[in-house]
Amino acid sequence: MSNMNEIRPWEHLENLIDADAAEEIKIHLDSLQSEDIASAVSHIGKEARFKLLTLLNPEDAAEVVEDIPWVQAVKMLENLTAKDAAAIINEMRSDDQVDFLTDMSAEGAEAIMVELEDEQVENIRKLIKFAPNSAGGLMITEFLAFDESKTVGDVSGRPQRWLGKIQKLQSPIPICNV
Fold first, then answer.
1. How is the chain split into domains, by residue range?
2. What would the pLDDT profile of 27-69 be if each residue is shown by its tens digit?
3. Which H/E stretch holds residue 65?
C-alpha cells in the first residue's frame, strides 16, 4: 500500500518547475523511465510544461520532447520562441526534426528553420521531400565513424547523447568498412 504522504513524480516535477530548479529537474528526470517522464509531463499544467522546456538545456529538453506524446510535444515546441524551439530541434535526430517540423504550422516551422544553421536547413528540406513512410522518410542522416583499428572499448566513451540516439533506433545499424 502506498504512503499517503508520498509525492507523485508529476507533483515533484511541478514543484521543481515552480522553484526554477533546473539542475534538480534534470536529476529528477534522470531518475525516471521514459514512460514515467511522459506521465509526469502529461499530468503537470500547460504553463509548467512550457516552462519545463525553457529551464532545461536544449539536449535534455529534446530528450523530454522525444519521451512525451507526439501531439503534446508538437504543441509544446510551437509555443516556445522560434529560437528556443530551434535549439531543441537541433539536438534531435534528423528524422525527428523533419517529423516535428512537418507537423507544425508552416509559419512556425519556417520561423524555427530561420534559427537553424543553413546546412541543417538544407538537409531538412531534402528529407521533407520524401513520403513519411518511405525509406527516405524514415532514414536518418547521422552516422558515427571510427578508425577501424579502434576497439569497442575505445569508442564506448563517445558522447552519451550519440550512443543514446543509436540505442533508440528501431532498425539495425549498417556497419561498413570504408
1. 1-80
2. 988 888 878 888 888 889 888 988 998 888 898 889 888 888 8
3. helix 58-67
